[in-house]
Amino acid sequence: MTTSTPTTPAIPLVDYGKYLHGSEAEQKEVAAQIDEAFRNVGFVYLTNHGVPQERVDECFEWSAKFFALPTSTKLLAPHPPGSTHHRGYSGLGQEKVSQNVFDEEQLSKLRAVPDVKESYESGNPTDDSQPNIWLPEDKLPGFRAFMESFFEDCATLIHHLLHTLSLALRVPSLSPTHAHSLFQLRLLHYPALPARLLRSHAKARIGAHSDFGTLTLLFQDGVGGLEIRDPRCAGSGEEGFRPVPPVERAVLLNVGDLMERWSNGRWRSTLHRVGAPPVPMREGAGGPDGEEEEEVCRPRYSVPFFATADRDAVVEALPGCVDEEHPRLYEPVTAWEYVQMRMAALYS
């Protein structure tokens, strides 16, 4: 039976170990639990997911070491201009996440409030179409080797999940459509920031958006700040967002746009964002005249792992997802076409 955390009842918590190590009946049970979560909210927490916690902890340690480097050193592995080669380091304000905004004038207005975050992207070491961009080894010895091995840890989990979801839909495995593992491992750092700037929208960490691949794994630190939009709320106001606190030793899994298209809307690619964490720290000890202390959002680190299908994979409604009650919602599109359209809006 699917259980929920006390603090986030809308997002189920599923023991994925029952799929990895269980009987056929247990595998079907887990597939049904994830199917239900994806239909209702588009997110699910997974425990016993097969990526050892010590590996996750080490990834966060490497992330902290990388972002603590001088900017001049990080820029030895720069994200290239534009959006077609999504690898390397992006500094504060370089990226602006948007949702279905492609007009350049509108994008310029959005970019006036940049995302206050920095990131480092790497992908499959065998992907010659988007080679990784690494620091010189002597600048952070061991960083590249660990990131390449952690990529494999996460890619293995993604392929297990694709088998699981195919079981839920009763279709042939989707894993072969991701045969080249064109995935992206991202390190994210959100520096400390006065909470008032986030709450007044003068600054942003990440605005509301959906992921545009098939699946996303998210490993979080303990700071918080992630929010998802409750699919049951009408309209698009602020009241529709709910906090998603980190769950110890769990990975958060969510549906991306391409998977929503494949399932013909059965599964939800839910809007989410990163705002002010619920427990900010305070700066200083207050002024001499009793002024209130400045609330400062603590630095936040997260590690998302984005999966997408092979470039030429045609994404259209899968068998069993279209009938008289569920007409076709989307036109067929290749994974490459859709991802590049969304990526083009991220970078100025």
Automatic annotation (TrEMBL):
Q: Which domain of life is it from?
A: Eukaryota
Outline the segment boundaries, as ranges, of region: Disordered: 115-134, 273-294
Matching entries from PROSITE patterns are given as: FE2OG_OXY
Q: Where is the composition biased (Polar residues)?
A: 121-132
Q: Output the SUPFAM superfamilies linked to this UniProt entry.
A: Clavaminate synthase-like (SSF51197)
Q: Name one GO molecular function term.
A: metal ion binding
UniProt keyword annotations, A-Z: Iron, Metal-binding, Oxidoreductase
Question: PANTHER family this protein is in?
Answer: 2-OXOGLUTARATE (2OG) AND FE(II)-DEPENDENT OXYGENASE SUPERFAMILY PROTEIN-RELATED
The name this protein goes by in its record? Clavaminate synthase-like protein
Report the source organism.
Answer: Glonium stellatum
Upper taxonomic lineage: Eukaryota, Fungi, Dikarya, Ascomycota, Pezizomycotina
